[in-house]
């Protein structure tokens, strides 16, 4: 993988966390790392530089991570609503993970951050990008990670029309 070609933006008000992430990214060959202390500064950087991946903290002073993601995904003047975003936080409760997911993050990374975790999230973003979905109240990567063969409810997306499902009564795969 050509990590050296990536332009990565780190958004965190904690300088020590940014330094740790920079060291991890440099160790795998990333050469272009940009830093911001909050979401407002990050948006400014994104308006002047084509960023490939964003790593943002959830809790920050000023414009926090959730507000930042919402601005990137939904603001009419967003510099890049499709940029892959990894949310990093020490608050990895199910509620916070769902908030980040519903804001439109691509991946979630719990602290303490490890090199393996950072590399894994970058690899997922590059090798397995998820399509983006737009509904009345959501814009971001498809939140479904995989097709659930036990799903018996109605499919809610046009591309699901050609999807098969498992009929639990007959235990047979049937087209939807």
Please describe the structure with a list of short key phrases separated by commas or semicolons.
single chain; 176 residues; alpha/beta; Rossmann fold; 2 domains; 5-stranded parallel β-sheet; two-stranded antiparallel ribbon; 5 helices; globular; disordered C terminus; Sig_transdc_resp-reg_receiver; phosphoprotein; CheY-like_superfamily; Response regulatory domain-containing protein; ST_Response_Regulator
* First-residue to last-residue Cα separation: 38 Å
> What share of the residues does DSSP label as strand, in percent?
15-25%
Q: How many helical stretches?
A: 5
CATH architectural group of the largest domain: 3-Layer(aba) Sandwich
CATH fold naming of the largest domain:
Rossmann fold
- Main pleated-sheet profile: 5 strands, parallel
- Number of E-type strands: 9
What is the approximate shape? Answer: globular
Q: Number of folding domains?
A: 2
Low-pLDDT regions? 162-176
- Structural class given helices, strands, pairing? alpha/beta
Q: Give the SSE string.
A: EHEHEHEHEHEEEE
Name the CATH class of the largest domain: Alpha Beta
Strand numbers in spatial order across the main sheet = 2-1-3-4-5
Task: Report the mean per-residue pLDDT as an integer.
Answer: 86
- In helices, the fraction of residues equals 25-40%
Measured on Cα atoms, how large is the radius of gyration? Answer: 18 Å
CATH homologous superfamily designation of the largest domain: Response regulator
């Amino acid at each position: 993988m050509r990590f050296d070609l990536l332009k990565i933006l780190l958004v965190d008000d904690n300088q020590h966390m940014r330094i740790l992430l920079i060291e991890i990214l440099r160790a795998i060959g990333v050469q272009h790392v940009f830093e911001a202390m909050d979401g407002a500064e990050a948006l400014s950087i994104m308006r002047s530089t084509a960023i490939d991946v964003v790593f943002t903290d959830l809790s920050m002073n000023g414009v926090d991570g959730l507000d930042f993601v919402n601005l990137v995904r939904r603001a009419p003047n967003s510099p890049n609503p499709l940029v892959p975003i990894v949310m990093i936080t020490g608050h990895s409760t199910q509620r916070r993970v769902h908030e980040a997911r519903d804001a439109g993050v691509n991946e979630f990374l719990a602290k303490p951050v490890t090199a393996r975790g950072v590399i894994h999230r970058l690899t997922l973003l590059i090798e397995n990008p998820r399509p983006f979905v737009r509904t009345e109240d959501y814009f971001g990567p498809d939140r479904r990670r995989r097709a659930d063969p036990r799903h018996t409810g109605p499919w809610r997306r046009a591309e699901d029309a050609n999807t098969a499902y498992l009929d639990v009564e007959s235990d047979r795969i049937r087209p939807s």
